[in-house]
Amino acid sequence: MMNMKAEKLLLLIICFNMIFSTVICEPPTCPADLDGDCGVDNSGEWEGEFFPGIPKIKYEGPTSKNPLAYKWYNANEEILGKKMKDWMRFSVAFWHTFRGTGGDPFGAATKMWPWEDGTNSLAMAKRRMRANFEFLEKLGVDRWCFHDRDIAPDGKTLEESNANLDEIVALAKELQGTKIRPLWGTAQLFLHPRYMHGGATSPEIGVYAYAAAQVKKAIEVTHYLGGENYVFWGGREGYQTLLNTNMERELDHMARFFEAAVAYKKKIGFTGTLLIEPKPQEPTKHQYDWDAATAANFLRKYGLIDEFKLNIECNHATLSGHSCHHELETARINGLLGNIDANTGDPQVGWDTDQFLMDVSEATLVMISVIRNGGLSPGGFNFDAKLRRESTDVEDLFIAHIAGMDTLARGLRNAAKLIEDGSLDELVRKRYQSFDSELGAQIEAGKADFDLLEKKAIEWGEPKVPSGKQELAEMIFQSAM
């Protein structure tokens, strides 16, 4: 027979896991109350700081051993003529940081943050929002990202959901002040059962209309909060089997949906960038924005190429069979690189693990693309990453973000070294120097037909093919690490 503490803890675990599935349970005694004061008074307000004992995070340099300090990210330091903070434009993801429970398909929640009371009430939503802005202030980050249903509870009707969102957004507007704003907002069109077949690609017109109404509201609140971008992630916009799917019709419907979003954005004067976030599968077997190239092709086909950019997530790149660097370069050369969801996956785990990016080599490749792109503004780096299930201390939230920011800062420093040194660029230039000729210019201008090329092939005979120097390229790259 369980004792009282064990019963309370079990109830907490059950409730937190239910919240993860958007089911509201009755409020249990809060975690801190198992040992004493919870920090919440009878009105539901939080007393004092959410992160007591955590100072404002400062730059202390590479020799620092302090886990709550930046070693490589020095916000105002100039790299290649631009402040580090302007290259990065870091953002905190509300859903992972303040709604992540540590639950997974095989286990219940593990994270019992002291300010949580086990409900999905408006009072609880307000506490989370206050915790979010204290976290941003202490971390020294002035951007955040959100899904509509993560920051405010779903209501019984669309009108009630909108009213809940309005109440939380009003508080967020107050807490933002003049310095903080959303990097982007989005609508959660994947968790609720109504979206089991998708939103913009649902075969049911009522769901299509509901999804449009939800996106309309999410764009409005993103605009109201001063958001710089708006993201579409189509986790359910795809299929499980083609046997019951009219792919052509669904793609047409999705295009019409995006056209309506563009029209509404312009109607209300929202100047932020609309972003599409590619992902190949999970939760559906096949999603229509599989990778950067697929998304670019979709946008071109439907005449939307000038209205959208892409939000590239590194873990999604892995799932599509590409490297993050490949996806960034594909987006960049198509003029579509708008934002980066900074995370990574485990190469031994075949799903979207959303880990903080800690690989300096990977970060260096990422920053090479960002520098070539001239930066990301008005996009940035959003930490769409979550603590490991086993990391349960409040300070772990800070440590994870600090480490992620330091890793990308090291990547920026390394990329700058490589560019300033010029050896890698020179190696690439030499590899293509045969095209820096009269005939090469004709080919690249589209003025060399097959007759001319055949004449040159006969004149020159068997070509001599030079070495690709891959190992030298890798040596130069590693020398910057």
CATH third-level topology of the largest domain: TIM Barrel
What is the H level of CATH, i.e. the homologous superfamily of the largest domain?
Answer: Divalent-metal-dependent TIM barrel enzymes
Helix content: 40-55%
User: Helical region count?
Assistant: 17
Bulk shape: globular
For the record, the CATH class of the largest domain is Alpha Beta
Round the Cα radius of gyration to an integer and report it: 25 Å
Across the major sheet, the strand order is 7-6-5-14-13-12-10-8
Mean pLDDT: 92
* SS-based class: alpha/beta
Low-confidence stretches: 1-38
End-to-end CA span: 57 Å
Strand tally is: 14
The CATH architecture name of the largest domain reads Alpha-Beta Barrel
Largest sheet: 8 strands, parallel
Quick summary of this structure?
It is found in: Cytoplasm. The protein is globular, with a radius of gyration of 25 Å.
Description:
One of its GO terms (molecular function) is metal ion binding. It is found in: Cytoplasm. By secondary structure, the chain is α/β, with parallel strands linked by helices. The protein folds into two domains: 418 residues, Divalent-metal-dependent TIM barrel enzymes (TIM Barrel), CATH 3.20.20; 57 residues, no CATH class. Helices cover 44% and strands 10% of the residues. A hairpin with a 2-residue loop joins strand 3 and strand 4. Helix 4 packs parallel to helix 6, helix 7 runs parallel beside helix 8 and helix 11 packs parallel to helix 12. The N terminus is likely disordered.
